[in-house]
Amino acid sequence: MSRRRIGCVGYENPTLWTRREWLARAGGGLGIIALAHLLRCEGLLAQGAELDRSVNPMAPRPPHFRARATRVIWIFINGGPSHVDTWDYKPALEKWDGKSIKLFDPSFKDTTGFFRNQVGGLMKSPFKFRPRGQCGKMVSEIFPYLGEHVDKMAFIHSGYTESNNHSPALFMMNTGFTRMGFPCVGSWVVYGLGTESQSLPAFIVMSDPKGRGLPKGHAANWSAGFLPGIYQGTHLKPKGDPIDNLRLGRGLTLAGQRRQLDLLKELNESFARRYEAESDLTARVESFELAFRMQMAAPEALDLSQEPAYIHRLYGMDNPKCAHFARQCLIARRLVERGVRFVQIYSGGMENQRSWDGHQDIKGNHAQFAGETDQPVAGLLADLAQRGLLDETLVIWGGEFGRLPVAQTGKKPGRDHNPHCFTFWLAGGGVKGGVSYGESDEVGFKAAVNRVSVHDLHATILYLLGLDHERLTYRYQGRDFRLTDVAGRVIHEIIA
Length: 496
What we know:
Blueprint lengths: L4 E3 L8 E3 H23 L7 H7 L15 E7 L14 H4 L23 E4 L6 E4 L4 E4 L12 E7 L6 H10 L9 H9 L9 E4 L27 E3 L17 H21 L5 H22 L7 H7 L7 H15 L4 E6 L14 H25 L6 E6 L3 E2 L2 E3 L8 E2 L3 E6 L7 E3 L1 E2 L6 E3 L4 H11 L9 E3 L2 E3 L15
Parallel strand pairs: 3-10, 3-11, 7-16, 8-9, 8-10
Antiparallel strand pairs: 1-2, 4-13, 5-6, 7-15, 11-15, 12-14, 17-18, 19-20
Helix pairs in contact: 6-7, 9-10
């Protein structure tokens, strides 16, 4: 058998190899090329984050420093919960019930809220408060289940924001700006960290499933803004199929759909090479690929029949009053368990009695929505803890602003918007439990001690995820933008 030798072209005295020697040498090189491709797709090869994003924009990326949390579940209390009727106990309101707020703060104006002709006197809470947990936190009676978990929570009682109107206040809380068009918190987090799951969206949003509508501003609240579109939130529809086209079309097989996507990808990539400025095209290609992977992964993740009966009871799925929200909280746990980076659940829909926007009958409004969310959120905290997931999952509770301590007059008194003070709580994900930070004034009108801006809150969330809010930037129209704009201070006092 002849041993044909192959020469190295371009050399005066080429080295002659047998075919076996050439295949052995070349085969090793081809293997390295294949390995490099796999590592790059997983985000493990490149040293710079930008190179990772150019290959796979959703590849997991290391944080700036050691992260306390790896994922987030934000219970968004849409409409503006009243801090003085939930978590910020104000005994002075009982003493001064019916008196003018100007006795305490002459700067109060009738335009502070939204309805200047319906301003009444100071109003005590219609709910009783009592101490809960080892920390003795005073908690409203509307939270019998969540009150059992106060030793896991860090309360911020001195938040303030820039608008008393729902839409700009929602944008501010979600994006750090009162105007639409900016990336939201979830998009910034996924841009900075990527996702651990390549078969599910990295950022998922759930809204009110009882026909009460979306929050003001709709999808702009979970928009990627000027970031690449791949980082925007994926909204699960509250009724019917949660995601359109999750099932294969009639007569279409997985193999057939794979061939269609391969052709689309080839055409899109050819177009992208000619028009490199069209950045949205990369997001579109990736969205097609993700949709294909989701057809296999999403139905399993959203199938709650796999959960045992005691888990259903823990969340309150056997309770008609809260079953709808219980389902969403349980889905959230299943999603983060499977690598989803950021989940946001909106309690309530549009304004007024369809959300926590208690202009009329604050007692009935808050009792209703607390009843819908109390057991499901408490069940979520308990379930995450028993599975060892709470240590790395940051759970957030809060809305776009607070409510005034005065009555909004009507048949049944309510409370108007209050941008000067709100309460948030955080749990898990490296947060100290059983602590309170900041204080509102005697009647809960303004943040008074250790005031916390929305940018401070955002900086703290990013810090718990291992991201420096000053380093997480994106250049757009000649400027480096960030979630916290040019402000923001990490609240180290609530971090374990």
